[in-house]
Amino acid sequence: MHVLELVNQWVWGAPLLILLVGTGIWLTCRLGLLQVIRLPLALRLIFKAKNEGEGDVSSFGALATALAATVGTGNIVGVATAIQIGGPGALLWMWIAAFFGMATKYAEGVLAVKFRTMDDKGQVSGGPMYYIERGLGSKFKPLAVFFAISGVLVALFGIGTFPQVNAIVSSTQSSWGVPAIVTAGIMTVVTALVTLGGIKSISQVSTKVVPVMAIIYIVASFVVLITFADQIPHAVALVFEGAFNGAAAGGGFLGATVMMAIRNGVARGVFSNESGLGSAPIAAAAAKTKWPAEQGLVSMTGTFFDTIIICTLTGLTLIVTGVWQGAERGAMMTQAAFDAAIPYGSIILTICLMLFAFTTILGWNYYGERCITYLFGVKSILPYRIVFILLIAFGAFIKLEAIWLLADIVNGLMALPNLIALLGLSGVVVAETHRYLQHMKSQKLG
């Protein structure tokens, strides 16, 4: 355990975080602040993309699948942890990481569609393993294989299963006294029904559940902010002051340095929106579109919704209610913020946590499936799905901190080959962007 903790700290240390944000800064410069200038177009395309060309699901379906995996417990627990350790200033560094992360997510979406292919069942396959091998060249195949192996391990033993299952089981047990075995049984059956249908089934569920869970959480957060409206100016001031001056100790809070604010804000922001990790482009590749840049723009909005909107609302509710200085930790801290303004606020948060965690399971099931298909072909899909479902069944009763740490490490290692590819193929991203914008311009002239 001690060795794994040391390795985890090394993997998620300053070099990787600098590389993640640095790649976003480089792409932002090369694309001319595309995430600002083209954001209105990107938001329109979510519902108005023509969905022409090869693909398995609509552009919105691909985005919903990616958001299903991305919007998870990190938006509730991760933000609370970042502010608890790094102070309110961590929220500003989360915004900065997300701002540059939008350019990274755009590039991932472009390359996913540009270099996607078909598997033996006629289903679209894409993602970093394909744009590494087909974009950078076959000599980089070991890097693509390394990414795919990491993706399977994270899906089966990390983000995709155990943490999410435990989040749901512990929530239902503490809030409603539901036995773990009952929750595990229901989750296993529902997961099997959805995931055995593949990407189309996952996409159909995601397009219905993701907007609902986001709306419930956003409305509840706004109720808290309206209740404590007089504290919002002070909360915003704390965010900016803490980002550059650190935060003073108070209550159960130990006090945070500027370095703690930066590290926790950037790290938790990246964990939450997954920009640069290489997971979201696997879903983006399935979109029905003939323009890589079009899906890149739609994918980019995922980081905007995840961090700029949902994480911001979580952070502000924690600060305006003052619970960030209390003794609560993680989800309990966010629960205390909801309870401070909403009757049965903890129940609403439990429902949100359950939905967030369940959709993350669905999204990561698909990511792992595409990774194992790249490694072993379509014959490996059914065995993979069976193993995944069994892990969901047993996940409620497993307390394997070592496996979680290992998955955390592999999750970080996923980012390395992906970031190398993004930097190496940035010229392709720029060229595809110009091609799409010229097309848009000619349509307007026409």
Keyphrases for this structure?
446 residues, symport, mainly alpha, transport, 76% helix, amino acid:sodium symporter activity
In summary, what is this structure?
Belongs to the alanine or glycine:cation symporter (AGCS) (TC 2.A.25) family. With 446 residues, this protein is mainly alpha-helical. It contains 21 helices and two strands.
Computed Rg: 21 Å
Shape: globular
Into which percent range does the helicity of residues fall? Answer: over 70%
The CA-CA distance between the termini, in Å, is 64 Å
**Unreliable stretches covering 5 or more consecutive residues:** 249-253
Strand content: under 5%
Largest sheet: 2 strands, antiparallel
SSE order: HHHHHHHEEHHHHHHHHHHHHHH
Mean pLDDT: 88
Number of E strands:
2
Structural class by SSE content? mainly alpha
Biggest sheet strand order reads: 1-2
Number of helices: 21
Keywords: Cell membrane, Membrane, Symport, Transmembrane, Transmembrane helix, Transport
Membrane topology: Multi-pass membrane protein
Subcellular location: Cell membrane
GO cellular component, one term: plasma membrane
Explained architecture:
Belongs to the alanine or glycine:cation symporter (AGCS) (TC 2.A.25) family. It comes from Paenibacillus azoreducens. Keywords: Cell membrane, Membrane, Symport, Transmembrane, Transmembrane helix, Transport. It is a multi-pass membrane protein. Pfam families: Na_Ala_symp. This protein is an all-alpha fold and 446 residues long. 76% of the residues lie in helices and 1% in strands. It has 21 helices and two strands. It has helices spanning 2-11, 14-30, 34-37, 39-48, 59-70, 77-86, 90-114, 128-136, 141-157, 162-176, 180-195, 198-227, 232-245, 258-273, 280-284, 292-320, 331-339, 345-376, 381-395, 401-424, 426-445, and strands at 117-118, 124-125. It has a two-stranded antiparallel ribbon with strand order 1-2. A hairpin with a 5-residue loop joins strand 1 (117-118) and strand 2 (124-125). It starts with a helix and ends with a helix. Residues 249-253 have low confidence and may be disordered.
